[in-house]
Amino acid sequence: MNVTIVDYNSGNISSVINSFKEVAKNKVNIEVTSDLKKIKSSDKVVLPGQGSFKSCVDALNKINGLTDSLNEFAINNKKPLLGICVGLQMFADIGYEETETKGLGWISGKVSKIDNQGGKFKLPHIGWNQINIVKDSKIFQNIENNSHMYFVHSYEFVPNEKNVISATTDYSSNIVCSVEKENIFGTQFHPEKSDKTGLKIINNFISL
Amino acid sequence: MLKNRIIPCLDVKNGRIVKGINFVGLKDAGDPVEQAKIYSDGGADEICFLDITASNENRDTIYDVVKQTSKKCFVPLTVGGGVRSVEDISKLLNCGADKVSINTAAVENSKVVIDSSKKFGSQCIVVAIDAKKNGDKWEVFTHGGRNNSGIDTLEYAKQMEENGAGELLVTSMDRDGTQVGYDIDLMSKISSKVNIPIIASGGVGNLDHLVDGIKLGNASAVLAASIFHYGKHSIKEAKEYLDSKGIPVRI
User: Active-site positions of A?
Assistant: First the structure.
């Protein structure tokens, strides 16, 4: 089996690579590439993302044909895709970080700044927070409710349809921190930095 | 609920831990990779390396340490010391660091923080501030505490937030190494001045100091070196103690 981590200059992805390689051992082949053919023929795709919504969308668009290939993979062929952090946020129709920017439009909704209640809550939301699992998700198999995950973000995904939400976390309000829509999965937290529990989530995704 | 973080810090010189001590089960007291793994297995919320390698020819040793550590530790890794440029930051991130802390370069050239936070995102840019009290204010020091910039720490902290820092690592030079506790006044003043999280550093001698840093200093995270490094307390003990004092921690 091939799992492809999309390398599109979206910032630092070495931790994502390390964690997937750790979990995959020698059973699964982990590719790190922006090669469209390899992405399309892959069994699973991981879409990481760091920095701003705009910078990640711009970086995706800079690689000719990449968005189309991802659409083909996830929407037409319905193969499993996991978005991490801004990778998840880009599923939205639109994001408001820096400036209004169009997303992939896979899960209708918007990405807006976390309401810090006039400075009561520090931003970025950095550190370990507990997740509240609100629906069965394949990537949460054997993950206990209220597990700790590592977060670092200032913007949140607000999906229009609430049935895609698989987990929330409490920071100033209930922030959506995980979604599942058919073959599309996303985590706002960083499973690659969330210790053994995070690696378990990665393993669940690889084992789908 | 967001948990307060405990961050053990390791001073690394020429790829080796400075002043290593033999723990049970630790094969090589000077190996930062092995020590970092023990900390992360013990529940450390993040790991921090401070590279104090003086000579340029041995600078590359830290890259190797970061590479090895990031393959074994799956909690965030912050690396600082000698970071001068956007290229240095890029290199550390590519080796597997999750955040890079910038000290002297942030004072000397504000573009480093502005450019790197734009390029890599604020989430991986930590500005480290070495502050020393002078009268009723604190001044920012650079070059490992050797040079006084004369800059007011509170103004500087605000400026760094505006420049794009995601967190501030605040070290009281008056307290560093004294084991009498954090400079609570400094921590709480900076914390109320900025909206980004602050990490308190310098002066921890016992577990109550960690409690004070969070409760009185309003720090989001507490950093300590010697109380963990010399085996006085384990990370687990520290977390259980904080928990008993009503501080939210990841256990």
Answer: 85, 190, 192
Q: Sorting pLDDT into bands at 50, 70 and 90, what band is B24?
A: low
Pairwise CA distance, residues A191 & B146, whole Å: 40
For residue B143, the tally of other CB atoms under 10 A from its CB is 13
Q: Which residues contact A29 (CB under 8 A, 6 or more apart)?
A: A1, A2, A3
Cα gap B143→B145, rounded to integer Å: 5
Burial of A78 (0-12, 13-18, 19+ CB in 10 A): exposed
pLDDT band for B232, please (50, 70, 90 cuts): confident
Percentage of residues in chain B having pLDDT higher than 90: 84
Q: Decide if B75 and A150 are in contact by the 8 Å CB cutoff.
A: yes
What pLDDT digit, counting tens, does each position of B167-205 carry? 999 999 999 988 999 999 999 999 999 999 999 999 999
Cis preceding-peptide flag for A124 (omega within 30 of 0): yes
pTM of the full predicted structure? 0.95
DSSP letter (8 states) at residue B205: -
Q: From B39, which residue of chain A is nearest by alpha-carbon distance?
A: A195
User: Does B197 contact chain A (CB < 8 Å)?
Assistant: yes
Tell me: the pLDDT tens digits for A37-85? 999 999 999 999 998 999 999 999 999 999 999 999 999 999 999 999 9
Q: Among B59, B51, B54, B99, which residue's Cα sits nearest to residue B77?
A: B99
Give the model confidence (pLDDT) of A93-127 as tens digits: 999 998 999 999 999 999 999 999 988 999 999 99
Q: Which two tokens stand for residue A45?
A: 């795709």
Residue numbers in B near A125 (CB within 8 A): 2
Residues in A closer than 8 angstroms to B97, CB to CB, are: 12
Which segments of B99-143 does DSSP mark as H helices, in order? 104-108, 110-120
- Domain holding A120: CATH number? 3.40.50.880
- Quote the distance between the C-alpha of residue B47 and its chain's center: 8
- Identify residue B243 by its one-letter amino acid code: D
In chain A, the number of structural domains is 1
Q: A134: buried, middle or exposed (CB in 10 Å: 19+, 13-18, 0-12)? A: middle
CB contacts, 8 Å: B115 with chain A: none
Q: Which residue of B has its CA nearest to A53?
A: B121
Closest-approach residue (CA) in chain A for B40: A195
Residue A201: domain span: 2-206
Q: How far does B215 lie from chain A, in Å, by closest CA? A: 15
